[in-house]
Specification:
The protein is mainly beta. It contains 1 helix and 21 strands. Helices cover about 5% and strands about 40% of the residues.
Amino acid sequence: MRSSGRTVLLVTVLMAAMAAMAHVGPVLAADTVRPRAVIAADFPDPDVIQAGSTVYAYSTSSPAGTVPVAGAPSASGPWTMRGDALAARPSWATEDGGFWAPDVSRRADGRYLMYFTAPSAATTPTRMCIGAALSAGPLGPFRPVGDGPLVCDASEGGDIDPASFVDTGGKRYLLYKNDGNALNNGTPSIIWLQEVHADGITVTGPRRELIRNDRADENGVIEAPVLIKRPTGYVLLYSGGSYCGDGYFTGYAASPSLTGPFRKAYRPLMTTGTFGGAVRGPGGADVLGDRIFFHGWVGDCPGKGARWTYTAGLGWADDHPVVRGEPGAP
């Protein structure tokens, strides 16, 4: 059947609109998704790995330790606190101030590598910088590597939120964010990709920008990168907005290439609203298999609140993330 010119135009417009939105992908439905709190205590920025038959999670500093570690027989729990994975602070870090957003991965040589963020005594004013530590096992004790931070540039606000990524073929990368918003002078906050050698510590080649804080809903802040390889490309999860309160969210960007360009989805993957208020300020996310882990506020911030760790199911539709209900959630 022959089509009229108007029909062809309409189809063309619709196809163009669909192509423009193709990077967005589906998002969760608030009336069907109810995440479950798996660590009902202050355990923010959870990083989750599996080692043998045990699942381990690491968090930002809390009363439980410099880098608290929890363990469980499976991702769904039950979770128990297992101590402090980084009891020995690095010599370059100040005595006060927390250690943020640890990342633990296993190297090819079998040793466990931890990235962490700590306040550097060498910067004035004090800026947060990225360090590394090694351990023979996932519980630690992790011992800091070197006499100084791995990444530390005070002129760009310091550097925070490291994450490891191993690509197809075994190439290893470090992702992190320069903390430009800490300067309050318009310096951008950028998620960087830096290739490293197999040791995860020795950098090689120039770093590459993946995304920056360029949207109003981010309130000047993007952080907490997690990179995932998918059959058709790469998906970068990140947190945006002020970490304190309901405005914090988890967004994502996608690219067919590791080096970009990464295009942000037009709306976040997880917000307080998309969970119907069941989790406040869902962010600091990590992914293990078909689950996503993240924190959310319980109580007031600032104040006596805490960030519990939650989990939900994670699926994919056309290689875009979809958050699904967690079995056993209310």
